[in-house]
UniProtKB/TrEMBL annotation:
It comes from Facklamia lactis. PANTHER family: ABC TRANSPORTER I FAMILY MEMBER 6, CHLOROPLASTIC. The gene is sufC. InterPro entries: ABC_transporter-like_ATP-bd (IPR003439), ABC_transporter-like_CS (IPR017871), FeS-cluster_ATPase_SufC (IPR010230), P-loop_NTPase (IPR027417). This is Fe-S cluster assembly ATPase SufC. Residues 4-246 form the ABC transporter domain.
Length: 255
């Protein structure tokens, strides 16, 4: 079992404080969901954990199995077992999906334990079939010319191939129709177990109907203000955030 601990995390962007003391602990074998109104710091949290240099950590720690990873570069954090899927994946012209995934997998292995091409292709075929992806997508350049749904499936495919300790899934459901949502959810659920944990950032309950979280956390004003089990997401769907905001003395900004 592995543990990811966020301790009193404060993060600023261009001298504006966004996270104001986030505390959260994730273990493998757990799926956590973070919900909250726009602008409350949900995506900032995932970006800061992964090491985006635009996000300045001014206080706190992020511990992965007891090691503070805040001084590590992004690629080092990935090699330690972190993976991030974002709302708008980048296109990488000239690099095929196959090349990217095999390189990423071997980066986590020592030189004597590199994955063979046979084992890689066997696993790739299996995971692409699980996600209903045509074989031709393996040789296409990363996300180039992909639809929104294809990009999301492609990110889940990368996650299934790499098998991280912890996946940070930032609005992975954004823009997906119901069929694509079910396929993406199937991919996430297939990894659930003692060697995998996930932090899912979402605005909506619908994803959580398919990937049922063990814990749900509500973020407002740059901090976690309430936590519970999957029932909490259902309550939010019915009641909204106003009551929780009032309980915590937070004024919601109407959009």
């Amino acid at each position: 079992m592995s543990k990811l601990e966020i301790i009193d995390l404060h993060v600023s962007i261009e001298d504006k404080e966004i996270l104001k003391g986030v505390n959260l602990t994730l273990n493998t074998n757990e799926v956590h969901a973070i919900m909250g109104p726009n602008g409350t710091g949900k995506s900032t949290l995932s970006q800061a954990i992964m090491g985006n240099p635009a996000y300045e950590v001014t206080q706190g720690q992020v511990l992965l199995d007891g090691m503070n990873i805040l001084e590590l570069e992004v690629d080092e954090r990935a090699r330690k077992g972190l993976f991030m899927a974002v709302q708008y994946p980048s296109e990488i012209s000239g690099v095929s999906n196959t090349t990217l995934m095999r390189t990423a997998m071997n980066a986590q292995r020592d030189t004597e334990n590199q994955i063979s091409i046979f084992d890689f292709l066997e696993k790739l075929d299996e995971k692409m079939a699980l996600l209903d992806m045509p074989p031709s997508m393996a040789e296409r350049y990363v996300n180039e010319g992909f639809s929104g749904g294809e990009k999301k499936r492609n990110e889940i495919l990368q996650m299934l191939m790499i098998e991280p300790k912890f996946a940070l899934l930032d609005e992975i459901d954004s823009g997906l129709d119901i069929d694509a949502l079910q396929v993406v959810s199937k991919g996430i659920n297939s990894l659930r177990g003692p060697k995998f944990g996930a932090l899912i950032i979402t605005h909506y309950q619908r994803l959580l109907n398919y990937v049922v979280p063990d814990f749900v956390h509500i973020m407002m004003d740059g901090r976690v203000v309430k936590s519970g089990d999957s029932q909490l997401a259902l309550e939010l769907e019915a009641k909204g955030y106003k009551e929780i905001a009032q309980e915590n003395g937070i004024e919601l900004i109407e959009e």
